[in-house]
Amino acid sequence: MGIGNTLRLSSRMLHRRILYSSARSFTTTEGHRPTIVHKRSLDILHDPWFNKGTAFTMTERDRLDLRGLLPPSVMDSEQQIQRFMTDLKRLEEQARDGPSDPNALAKWRILNRLHDRNETMYYKVLIANIEEYAPIVYTPTVGLVCQNYSGLFRRPRGMYFSSEDRGEMMSMVYNWPAEQVDMIVVTDGSRILGLGDLGIHGIGISVGKLDLYVAAAGINPQRVLPVMIDVGTNNEKLLKDPLYLGLQQHRLENDEYIEVIDEFMEAVFTRWPHVIVQFEDFQSKWAFKLLQRYRSRYRMFNDDVQGTAGVAIAGLLGAVRAQGRPMLDFPKMKIVVAGAGSAGIGVLNTARKTMARMLGNTETAFESAQSQFWVVDAQGLITEGRDNIDPEALPFARKTKEMERQGLKEGASLVEVVREVKPDVLLGLSAVGGLFSKEVLEAMKGSTSTRPAIFAMSNPTKNAECTAQEAFSILGDNIIFASGSPFKNVDLGNGHVGHCNQGNNMYLFPGIGLGVLLSGTPIVSDGMLQAAAECLAAYMSEEEVLKGIIYPPISRIRDITKRIAAAVIKEAIEEDLVGGYREMDARELKKLNEEELMAYVENNMWSPEYPTLVYKDD
Ligand SMILES: NC(=O)c1ccc[n+]([C@@H]2O[C@H](COP(=O)([O-])OP(=O)(O)OC[C@H]3O[C@@H](n4cnc5c(N)ncnc54)[C@H](O)[C@@H]3O)[C@@H](O)[C@H]2O)c1
Ligand SMILES: O=C(O)C[C@H](O)C(=O)O
Ligand SMILES: [Mg+2]
């Protein structure tokens, strides 16, 4: 069409064009008309017709009571699809360089989908097959899940409190639909297993821990709440990833950080005054501070510091018994610990206290206990000669002169320390995979123990300080071996089998939580943690321990958890801290004999059975 023709567009055509365009704009307006929904909160997220997932805008989240039920980052639909496609494509990569069980993530997805559609059935499957599926919903696969969380994120589970929610937490906590919450596991994502800062993706660890609370301790799944507190991340990869679901800012520090955690604690304890909060995978610089800040004010504990310590003590006492010696010989053990973070220091403090108690609890007993430990961190052996020593590690710093006599100096390497000390136990909580190298394990051959023990406790599997195969093949089947993530027993030929123990805080935290809940204690005391550890230590028979089996198999986790809960309640009674639980008041609780106490615990453990449902109009 020439210019002239264009100019001569008939008025009829022009009219038609205008009509067409106005019809289009009319259609568009129609498309923007709001959809009326008769639902709010999780009911919307669980409805495929209305759910937009992370694409709900902040105003919509506020309008529909969704605040806190989704990660804080708002995505558009293009970004959502990009995330979905990245995940889909990752399947191929995983088949190539995935974990030792190439189906682990696929199994996790299938279990997770079941979790989304039928909780009762999910927990029935999990409890009946706990040995097979704990490594899927818990370590090591949970680590992989967190690392791939952006792609795996489907239906949100739990609550997200971010630093953007300051001033709002007290009200948004009411967006959680359950009237009662018994157990919260909270993380800030700053140190997930040995995988470092995973930011908001760390929520997977809270979900995994609570799965064990339900499966092992029989906490009602309707009363658990996984929480992620997003104060930013220092993980540069996440900070640069446009599809990251969390706040793209560096972590808050100092008072700003504490104010966020304070507000969260106040909010959850205001709505649910009897809730128990388990702190999980906070970097050590905050783990200790927050524990001290809250432990006498709230029902809370730190699993990495306190749960790990109890499990390690139980294992160390097992290692003494495995030598055919009485537990009271524990204070004679020489222990080299690699790693002085939240877990390592937690273990050291408790081990020292246990030894000191065995030696009479005097000042000399404490000093004598202290001299049984050699601590090696990223900078080598910790001595008093170190500049800027971490105050938490200070009590375990060795005296320079004494070390000189032993042929060691500040910063000595792990292999040097093992060679000189010839320890009974080598315990790793360093998060460094392969730290117990061939050289280090060879040096352990010089151990003066009749049955040396190797505890490679870092998680997940790739961060273990050594594999079971490496330990047994170098040191033989006489050793005691425990690892944080599960390893299969090692066939050493000629009918010899190296037994692998799983030294993981999963043997303690569910029982601690359950005992605290059912006792109604307002705080989690050192005595309760000690009672829990002693219960675990005493659980294994003489015969098992002599075979090198120092922890129960995970198939017995529900039974051990029940006993630990009873031990915690007993201790709460001793300390006069019981408050009772539901219809069992403190006075009644104190009257229970051993058998009745066990029955009380058992009767209060949830089991996955379908209840009869009856409809009732509001
Ligand atoms: N098995 C369990 O139940 C259990 C429980 C808690 C933590 N963990 C594991 O323990 C590990 C550490 O956790 P954390 O919270 O203490 O971490 P953290 O980051 O606070 O501490 C790590 C420590 O290891 C030290 N370290 C680093 N490189 C080292 C090296 N080459 N040699 C010796 N030490 C070295 C660091 O200096 C630091 O002291 C993680 O892998 C975690 O999964 C296991
Ligand atoms: O989560 C685990 O498996 C144990 C422990 O809490 C850890 O941080 O590694
Ligand atoms: Mg942990």
From TrEMBL:
Its cofactor is Mn(2+); Mg(2+). This is Malic enzyme. Belongs to the malic enzymes family. A divalent metal cation binds at residues 280-281, 304. Keywords: Metal-binding, Mitochondrion, NAD, Oxidoreductase, Transit peptide. Involved in the regulation of sugars and amino acids metabolisms during the night period. The gene is BnaA09g08320D. It is found in: Mitochondrion. The lineage of its organism: Eukaryota, Viridiplantae, Streptophyta, Embryophyta, Tracheophyta. Its main location: mitochondrion. One of its GO terms (biological process) is malate metabolic process.
